[in-house]
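Two proteins were folded this term; both appear here.
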Amino acid sequence: MTQPDAIVDHQLQELRAELARSQQQVADMAAAQEEFLRAVSHDLRAPLRHVTSYGTLVREVLGDLPPEVAQGPEVQEALGFLATMDQSAKRMGLMIDGLLALVRAGRAPLRLQPVLLADAIVQARASLAAVEPGRAVEWRIALDLPTLQADPALLQELLVQLLGNALKFTRQAAQPCIAVQAVVAPAGHVAFTVQDNGVGFDPARAGTLFGVFQRLHRESEFEGVGTGLALCRAIAQRHGGAITATAVPGAGCTVRVEWPSDAA
């Protein structure tokens, strides 16, 4: 073997070794995520089950007290504490669900195929039909919505979150209106917006909007734990896309989603 050939062979061996190290790092990260999923789905839920089940037992004990004692201020205060404890446990359960959804969205294999955005929106609206039945909402769905190269299941999760938020935050609007339309995007991309006339939010806080457990409204006003938009961002990024939001307090919100025309 000549010296140049030996040098090339040595370089190839180094590249193979580096590739093997990189593959091992990826495997280690996947194993760590699997361990996280196991802990979240099982280990962290067990204490929550104990909190809620024992709270129920305490209520039963208090309910067996004589009426003159059960109606006393101390017992009523204790019942209030139990209600707060139960509510907090349920909220933590929802936070765990949100974390699991984020991890799954980041790890799920992408099964890309052409998806008609208009059809995907019809499915998302059907999924949300039972959330707030009886509300009169004006839907303005454009006819020129693009076809996306997307994983259908992940795209459906993103749309359910976006349209669900629009429904939630237009709850106080006299004439709620939600519009989805195609917009101009940079070369190689397609884009669409979801716009509502709901409560909006303070633009100065827009930077935190897509963070995990970030909320811009009080829980007493709107339910949720602040993982929905973080999930939307994770799904968009998995496809090589991006998501942003703008709003005016009291005048609604517009979420813009950019998607590569040939997502890979």
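Next, the second protein.
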Amino acid sequence: MARPPSRRPGINRKAQYSLFASYVVAVVGAVAGLLLVVIAIFDPTGFAGLRTVTAEVTRPISVGLKNMVSGISSVDEVLAAYWRAGSQNVSLRRQVEADRNRIIEARAIAQENARLKRLLKLVDEDQSDLLTARLISSSSGSTRRFARLNAGRWQGVRPGMPVRAAEGLVGRIDSTTPNTSEVLLLTDTGNIVPVRRANDSVPAISTGGGDGSLEIRALSAGRNPFKPGDLLVTSGIGGIYQPNIPVAVVVRVQGEIAWGFPLANPSRIDAVVVERAFEEVVTRQDPAVTSAEETPSGNASAP
């Protein structure tokens, strides 16, 4: 009678080596994590350098993973469009979203155009766009909501610059490396955006909920003026974001707080536009400011 094979890892040499290798990997990972924590606490400058190097090294990998995730996520849309007929067709849905955002911007611009030109003396040419870039990754499971951009300091990107897509506002630049940037998304709890209702300009403040939603509070005291379906755009207050950029749609009202979802979903966005701050654009376009900067104070003459 043949001797039954032993199931103990000590007798099976291959299993023994695998078990030993797993222990080594676990110990090395724990040591590396502890080392990173120590560096972050006692040498923040060195830790920032490590983050910069890591961002540069992982950039090609992030680009490849983003393309792979985009390709996989589009499979379910194609299948749903096939099984649910024309009402769920992917191209039609995207066209409807694009048309809706154009209508929102057109209504907001028609209402504010005369006042902006009269008060700020803006010209018709828009000089806010800096460059077009791609989102190569975004966070979805943590309380902090960031996305990574494949453009950085060497391309002219600076912290505080707004980031928008065709669907609406995405967020603003938080930090940069030579060739990448961290975008603080609208849904992050640290991102506060002045907004207004598109149809009647009711002012409000949008704050990230940390879970993919937005908390919207009206600036006026009294009854909550918002209702589900309201469309919100940027107001231009604060000097960072251009006015009339689509931001979110209200989905729920609870007491004095309205909850909404951003129109631009970072997980489904590929190309974005990095813009100059609204205050910088207005300063560039205001002829009074330009002439004051160009005229030396010593040459000013009394009338």
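Residues 118-125, 292-303 have pLDDT under 50 and may be disordered. The CA atoms of residues 141 and 211 lie 8 Å apart. These notes refer to the second protein only.
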